[in-house]
Design brief:
alpha+beta, Rossmann fold, eight-stranded antiparallel sheet, four-stranded parallel sheet
């Protein structure tokens, strides 16, 4: 099958390589020109996806891995193309946080007070007049470098941070959002929607966004994720979120991946935000846990068909292996690792099934992998087992055999869940004893 894979900045770039490995003819389009050296000699590419529509045809498959293409997706479907991804109003669920909260409310889902601001001044004035422990966020899928979780109920730290952003001239390109802080355990639910109903089981997952072990330091896009599949549609988290959102997704003809990140306590589920696209690094965790070939699953979703998705039991984790300047995006020449070799010590073919590239390319002549970009999102390592300690051991043993100058990663993905959160989630009814 011919597959046209359309990406903005390679949120799910490795999926294109996996589809090629499944035996399909894949063309990868990368919108951001600075990212186009990634996957060189690993996946065939095109620099104009619209001109490649005649190549993929209406028998092939078109995959979008990011928001921002919603109108094009709606148009292509109307023209008879098989399209996996979102839709115009699907994009809005992620781009506009306040809109998503309104949709939650209309769907019978718990709403968290969330307000958008066009200027930093407007956000500062609001925080002064509405004292609370707020969370600073940005709309869209832009860098999370401006995110900040407030501590004081009188808004003092939120005001300080926003005033600092104003002095530094930050936040001019983004719509700043203030969301009331809620307390509990942060947990997410991810599933695929085929335009009319859900496909496959839910992937319950816990993100690790802080930079350092122990959940210390600045917020990153993500350092790693722990997850497990749940087939039970009576699951407390599913009933409070995805079940109630189903009618809206059907109305907007959404055909892709939906993730709702939440804070839960014993009594309530507070949805924080929607990821209306393939998420990273959770896509790599799904690749670890899924038995069903990706092309079969994605084809069924694009065609609006039901499908029996086969997955592995137990727990999986994905760990981000990064380089400077991650978690910040500014390019610093002295920190550039472009061209550096990546060494996989005594790796077998099976070992490579647990490695998922992003800023990696292949040197045909020297037959080595090398760093091909400057952002620091190098690769991801995954593992699966019946217990959290076992999957941690397997995954981190593999990481120890990867050698890249200046590489770093969090060494505690899943630890807090195993030591603290698991018992509480079981007590509150969100997790079966597994």
């Amino acid at each position: 099958m011919r597959i046209l894979f359309i990406s903005n900045d390679l949120i799910a770039g490795h999926l294109a390589q996996l589809l090629r490995n499944e035996g399909h003819d894949v063309l990868l389009y990368i919108s951001e020109k600075k990212r186009r050296n990634n996957f060189k000699n690993l996946v065939s590419k095109t620099n104009n996806w619209k001109k490649s529509l005649s190549w993929v045809g209406k028998e092939g498959l078109i995959i979008f891995d990011d928001i921002g293409f919603g109108e094009e997706q709606d148009t292509l479907r109307a023209q008879g193309y098989r399209v996996f991804g979102g839709s115009k109003l699907g994009d809005k669920l992620e781009i506009d946080r306040a809109y998503a909260q309104d949709i939650f409310e209309k769907s019978g889902i718990q709403k968290i007070p969330t307000v958008n601001f066009d200027t930093i001044d407007a956000a500062i004035n609001y925080a002064k007049l509405n004292k609370n422990a707020w969370v600073i966020k940005q709309n869209g899928s832009s860098s999370k470098s401006l995110n900040f979780v407030g501590h004081f109920p009188d808004s003092r730290d939120i005001i300080d941070v926003l005033e600092r952003y104003k002095i530094l001239g930050l936040g001019k390109k983004e719509i700043i959002t203030l969301q009331k802080r809620v307390y509990g355990i942060e947990i997410a639910i991810t599933r695929y929607f085929n335009g009319t109903h859900w496909v496959g089981p839910s992937l319950i997952n816990i993100e690790h966004k802080r930079f350092f072990p122990g959940d210390i330091g600045p917020t990153t896009s993500e350092m790693g994720t722990l997850g497990w599949y749940d087939y039970d549609e009576n699951n407390k988290l599913h009933q409070a979120t995805l079940k109630k959102l189903e009618s809206h997704l059907k109305e907007i003809n959404y055909r892709g991946c939906i993730d709702i990140n939440c804070i839960v306590d014993e009594d309530k589920v507070y949805p924080l935000e929607v990821t209306a696209r393939i998420g990273s690094p959770i896509i790599h965790l799904q690749s670890e846990l899924n038995i069903t070939p990706w092309s079969d699953l994605i084809s069924a979703i694009a065609d609006g068909k039901d499908f029996d998705v086969k997955v592995k039991d137990g727990f999986g984790i994905v760990v981000v292996v990064a380089l400077p300047p991650f978690p910040y995006s500014k390019y610093i020449k002295e920190q550039s690792s472009i061209g550096s070799r990546v060494y996989f010590e005594e790796f077998s073919e099976d070992d490579f099934k647990h490695i998922h590239f992003e800023e990696i390319a292949w040197n045909k002549k020297e037959k080595v992998h090398y760093i091909s970009d400057n952002r620091g999102y190098v690769l991801y390592v995954t593992g699966q087992s019946t217990t959290v300690p076992e999957v941690q051991e397997k995954t981190y043993d593999l990481i120890k055999r990867i050698h890249i100058p200046k590489m770093f990663y969090r060494n505690d993905i899943g630890l807090r869940f195993n030591n603290e959160q698991k018992a509480l989630l079981q007590k509150w009814g969100y997790l079966k004893i597994i």
